[in-house]
Amino acid sequence: MRYERSSALFRAAYKVLPGGVNSPVRAFKAVGGTPVFVKEAKGAYFFDEDGNRFVDFIASWGPLLFGHAFEPVLEAVISRTRKGTSFGMPTALETELAEKVVAMVPNVEKVRFVNSGTEACMSAVRLARGYTGRHKIIKFAGCYHGHADAFLIQAGSGAVTFGSPNSPGVTPGTAQDTLLARYNDLESVEALVEANAGAIAAIILEPVAGNMGCIPPESGFLEGLRALCTRHGILLIFDEVMTGFRLAPGGAQEALGIQADIATFGKVLGGGLPVGAFAARGEIMKHLAPEGPVYQAGTLSGNPLAMGAGLAMLTAIEEDPEVFSRLEQKTAYLHKGLQRELEATNLPFQINRFGSMISVHFTDIPVRDFDSAATGNNPHFKTYFHGMLDRGVYLPPSAFESYFLNDALSYEDLDLAIESAGAAMRGKVTR
Question: What positions carry a catalytic annotation?
Answer without folding.
Answer: 144, 239, 267
